[in-house]
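Q: Mind making up any chain with structure tokens?
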Amino acid sequence: MANEYGLLKYKLDYSKVIDRNQKDLTVYQSKFKVWDKVVREGKAGVPEISLPLLSDPTIYIYAILNFSNYWYQDMIISDEYRYKIFCAANQMGKSKLLNVQAIRGLLLDHGSQFNRAIISASLPQAKFQMQRIRDMLRQSKLEWEEDKGDVDNIMILSMKMYHPKAGEYQFFNKERRYKYTNYLIIAPCTDAGALGYDLHALDLDEFDFWERDTKQFFYQIAQPRTFHTRGSISIYSNPNGREGFMYELWNQKLNDGSYKWHRYQFNYWDKDGATQKEFDELIVGMTRRQIESTLLAEFSSSETSFFTYDEIKRSEDITLNESSAIGKQTYWFLDSAAVIDASVLVGAYTEPDVVNPQI
């Protein structure tokens, strides 16, 4: 359904994993078209027209930061739900998406103080993200400040918000028009325990590969930072197998049976320019688990399996049911897992081969 400015809205089924099967380029492309039209007609400075459009995250980032989200990034950043997991292959723009939405959160006037934190897997990654955010902020030509955290490895940016110099504030100096300050905190997971902020948004980058107890961190440190604010939590990561904690979160359900998290899953084949030739070159020398994590974005349990998880999933015949075996001799196979609860019971029956009856 389009609003008066021509913007369309996604209609996604969050009871399922959001992947390329729910791809909608019409919604995605309409955002750039309508903003380009507004700029072309010289109406970007008309608040009644521009402000409703700039409330869309992708349009805001396009207009202010001159950055265009990919179609799958737009689906994720347009979702205002509190809990999201972006399970993706390498080089899908996970960290870049975290950075641009963090900048938007820092620059927006939320009406009151807004604190966001990005927690990275390591100090070098945290520093890289901070540097990229600084560079993008410099391009925006807006005023921002940098503060020092309580711990050396915690980096903080701040943005002060002021009442406009109009109406009752038209004769006030800048100090008297001050409202509040937004904060963006970036830290490695090794030092994130020192965070003393209530957070309105918390982003966990490459969460499934942190070299620490992610379950303890999530429940004892991360999630409690959002209790008072009812803030959002987003996890962006490659999957690290079905033994990792992210897989547990991926499958969490609420009391009504719905999934707690909105789950997004995109892999190598969702990137522009993906080819079978390049894919075949990339997988040379890689283990099956590495392929599934870095390229296919699958929660692997097939390190020693002959078939990949994707191949196993595609081999299912959904037309078969109990009635299919009525009057037939059935055979059953049970593989009882010794370490984790992943046992499987498979039933089968045989049929004559009309081409080779002797078989």
Remarks:
- The first helix runs from residue 25 to 40.
- The chain has a mean pLDDT of 86.
